[in-house]
Amino acid sequence: MLKIEKVNKNFGKLKILKDINLEVKKGDRVVIIGPSGSGKSTLLRCINYLNKPDSGKIYFNDEIINDKNIAIYRQKIGMVFQSFNLFNNLNVIENIILAPVKLGIYSFDEAKKKAIEYLKRIDLADKVSVYPSSLSGGQKQRVAIVRTLMMKPEIILFDEPTSALDPEMVKEVQELMIELANEGMTMVIVTHEVSFVKRVATKIVFMDEGKIILEGTYDEMINSENESVKLFLSNIK
Ligand SMILES: Nc1ncnc2c1ncn2[C@@H]1O[C@H](COP(=O)(O)OP(=O)(O)OP(=O)(O)O)[C@@H](O)[C@H]1O
Ligand SMILES: [Mg+2]
Hints:
The protein has one domain (2-86, 153-234): P-loop containing nucleotide triphosphate hydrolases (Rossmann fold, 3-Layer(aba) Sandwich), CATH 3.40.50. It is 38% helix and 25% strand. It contains nine helices and ten strands. It has a six-stranded mixed β-sheet with strand order 6-7-8-3-9-10, sandwiched between helices. Strands 2-1-4-5 form a four-stranded antiparallel β-sheet, covered by helices on one side. The model has no long low-confidence stretch (mean pLDDT 94).
């Protein structure tokens, strides 16, 4: 579904991504781990051209993503951020239906109906008309995930979706992500939550200093010779 081929990204003189190759197949849940500053967010942002790669190719269903067609791919490649990125001046349902209505994915009435279905599913049907400022962090993130789902994405990229949350809210967001995984959603997830990694990942990718150092299943990674990978994965919260 997604193929990243020899992607490089520099910020000024700093080489942030170095010859990254990665393949994500339909139904995969690829989890990217690695130290702070290793380029995990930059890699996710390159996938949908929030950061434009300096060189290399990114294929989505065998088509190369480029400047011209990126608008189409941004709908197919959803993204969920650590900081939710909801519009604070719009209420919950307005946040959810704005983009899909604008892009003609749903009519206004259909979008409202679908949004309410989703809000019921995440137990937030009573929050339709409230503004993000009166939601908890966990509620905001679940609304942000629903907003992404409304675009009918084929893959969702999650950049540390639970790291801004209080511990008691981490679980409700993770459970929603696990539900999506069980429904077959293809996902690329950056997270530090090791117990979640173990539950959800079909493949783990360890990045360090802009390179993919190692990739494999949880068992392959934990049994590898690489001390930093083992240290990371044994640090279960
Ligand atoms: N827009 C930017 N301009 C300049 N440098 C940047 C920019 N974005 C990221 N960087 C640098 O690129 C490097 C990788 O950043 P990135 O955010 O991808 O790391 P990360 O692995 O996601 O780290 P963390 O775990 O802390 O989120 C860092 O050194 C960062 O300072
Ligand atoms: Mg990051």
